[in-house]
Specification:
By secondary structure, this protein is of the alpha+beta class. It has 2 domains: 2-81 and 224-261, no CATH class; 86-220, no CATH class. It has helices at residues 2-26, 226-261, and strands spanning 36-42, 45-49, 66-69, 72-79, 86-88, 95-98, 102-106, 112-115, 121-122, 128-129, 135-137, 146-151, 156-161, 168-172, 175-177, 185-188, 191-193, 202-204, 213-216, 218-220. The strands form 8 sheets. Strands 7, 8, 11, 15 and 18 form a 5-stranded antiparallel beta sheet that branches. Strands 12-13-14 form a 3-stranded antiparallel beta sheet, with no helix packed on it. α1 (2-26) packs antiparallel against α2. It is elongated, with a radius of gyration of 27 Å.
């Protein structure tokens, strides 16, 4: 019976939805995390009677037809790249992006990755790095004699050295943006990679040509909303249950048919 296979695809679709929701909820406290959303498409139809065909009996054009669907299939697990809440941390090297853009990070294999996680630290050479030790690109080195560090909204990093009054500029944090942010490839560790779908990055200083601005001593939180995720979870659970009931009903119908044939 076709209903068994159709309902099974519906159950698998809702299982994927629950997996996506569980990952979103698990990352509610992940800095710069962007929630995912499962998207689906209907599958091929069995056209038993096509609309627009002529009725063989009267010769009239049929206004509607008979098309029986075969279920649902996953289409994408797209990311929602909306702005997360910005919260203060009081750490000098914590930086949040307000608006468009991604920090550039140099991976050990030479590739450039992109992130919204601005929880930076200093390595043993005074270089600005991520919590995993990846260098921020372009490289910025803080002198060991620095008494204070300031990162302005335009990305300029200035330090105050001992026995000096005027601050000294040691570099500028640059941001990159993409035509299709949802096309970036997530590789874990709050990092994304450029893909053919995302397009090539446009890199400038913050606050230039629509690029976002920086907020020192702040971090962008996850854009996951607990209430929304819980409501989506309940809806997916109910849809799963209804598909399971269809399988049960189809099984009962087949059982009745087999008993009649005996």
């Amino acid at each position: 019976m076709r209903a068994l296979h159709t309902a099974a695809t519906g159950m698998m679709a809702q299982e994927l939805t629950v997996q996506v929701i569980s990952n979103n909820i698990a990352n509610m406290r992940t800095t710069g995390f962007k929630r995912q959303r499962a998207e689906f498409q209907d599958m091929l139809y069995d056209q038993q009677r096509r609309a627009g065909m002529q009725n063989s009996q009267q010769g009239n054009v049929l206004p509607v037809g008979i098309a029986i669907g075969s279920g649902v299939k996953p289409a994408a697990t797209s990311r929602v790249m909306s702005q997360g809440n910005i919260l203060p941390t009081e750490k000098d090297y914590d930086v949040a992006i307000r608006g468009e853009g991604y920090f550039r990070v140099q991976l050990p294999d030479g590739r450039t990755a992109y992130t919204r996680d601005g929880s930076f630290e200093l390595n043993d050479q005074g270089q600005l790095v991520t919590v995993d030790g990846n260098l921020v690109d372009p490289g910025i080195t803080i002198p060991t004699t620095a008494r204070g560090v300031t990162i302005n909204p335009s990305g300029t990093v200035q330090v105050t050295l001992q026995n000096q009054v005027a601050p000294q500029t040691v570099g500028t944090i640059q941001l990159s943006r993409f035509v299709n942010k949802a096309g970036l490839e997530s590789i874990g560790d709050n990092l994304f990679l450029e893909t053919a779908a995302s397009g090539q990055p446009t890199t400038t200083a913050p606050n230039v040509d629509g690029m976002g601005s920086l907020l020192q001593k702040n971090l962008e939180q996850s854009n996951v909303t607990a209430v929304s995720e819980i409501s989506d979870l309940i809806a997916a659970q109910r849809a799963y249950e209804m598909n399971a009931r269809i399988i049960s009903a189809a099984d009962q119908m087949l059982q009745s048919t087999s008993q009649i044939m005996r």
